[in-house]
Automatic annotation (TrEMBL):
Taxonomic superkingdom: Archaea
Keywords carried by this UniProt record: Hydrolase
Enzyme class, first EC level, given as a word: hydrolase
Annotated protein name in UniProt: Bifunctional oligoribonuclease/PAP phosphatase NrnA
Source organism: Halobaculum lipolyticum
GO molecular function, one term: 3'(2'),5'-bisphosphate nucleotidase activity
Segments forming domain DHHA1: 221-302
Domain DDH: 17-162
InterPro entries according to UniProt: DDH_dom, DHH_sf, DHHA1_dom, Oligoribo/pAp-PDE_c-di-AMP_PDE
Pfam families recorded: DHH (PF01368), DHHA1 (PF02272)
Species classification: Archaea, Methanobacteriati, Methanobacteriota, Stenosarchaea group, Halobacteria
EC number(s) recorded for this UniProt protein: 3.1.3.7
Listed PANTHER family: BIFUNCTIONAL OLIGORIBONUCLEASE AND PAP PHOSPHATASE NRNA
Amino acid sequence: MSAARNLSELLTGGTEITIVCHNNPDPDCLASALALGRIAADAGIDERHILYSGDISHQQNRAFVNLLDIDLRPFETEAVVDRRPDSLLAFVDHSVPGDNNDVPAGTRVDVVIDHHPADGVDATFVDRREAVGACATILTEYLRKLDVDVDPVLATALLVAIRTETLAFLRGVTPAEYDAAGFLHDLADQETLRRLVAPSVTGETLDTIATAIGNRTVARSVLVSGVGRTGERDALPQAADYLATLEGVETAIVFGIVRDAIHVSARSPDPRIHAGEVLHAAFEDVGSAGGHHDVAGGQVPLGIFADDTADDASLLTLVDEVVTARLFDALAIDEGER
């Protein structure tokens, strides 16, 4: 029996489903949650909830939610811990309680659909395909195999998700993405699609990218840059995407302080470097980090630095020095090469 049929059978036995997005959800996570909700509705589940933690700060992500009118609710621990026996809990685009989500470790999970590397995945239904370019690709396959109606809103969401996750079909793309996109193209709302593909950019995002350019340090073909404090968490991956296109740069890593944590974003077209493993090695003892060979991210609580300095300027300097050193050490680049 196909994964789609197995999922449908599991959903048929439930009366409620809570779909938890990962922290600060992106279009791939949001579209996948929307699609799973539609599949659950087709299976007869009337109570469906999509929860998220963190921020939806990237301009494209905000436009995505607003233009597609996605019904999201802030995460509440009680909604996943104190649920009924016939209430299902699902993860899309992430896999493990407590890892890039606010679900308490050890919570029973019923459905996991993901395309990221992960250890310790435990759920009644698991479909995790690291070779696939987007989680939305997997959900599109389910919709087609289960013959679930795909309206323009859902088609637009999934198509934007696949396009965004693969950097317009230039990163990590497989034949499955092209097949899914071909199916979705004629069903999508083309005007909404155009508006979502090229949303407006905030001034703070441009300032953050400019700061990353100005603060860059390059050793061999690796670029590392700290931007200090920023209110635009999603400006960090945008800066990394841009800096990775500079001549002579094969790996770009950008970090900055967002509220009470240091966020790190890496991009590495270089096949010799696994960005996820580099970030994991750099920060596994102080935070959480990982990802694919070409795209990765991490987060370190600022509290481990806060007690070591009295003023913000000194804190920023300390963070810049320590994070930069950890990254170059993880990349085996000696101090004399920096």
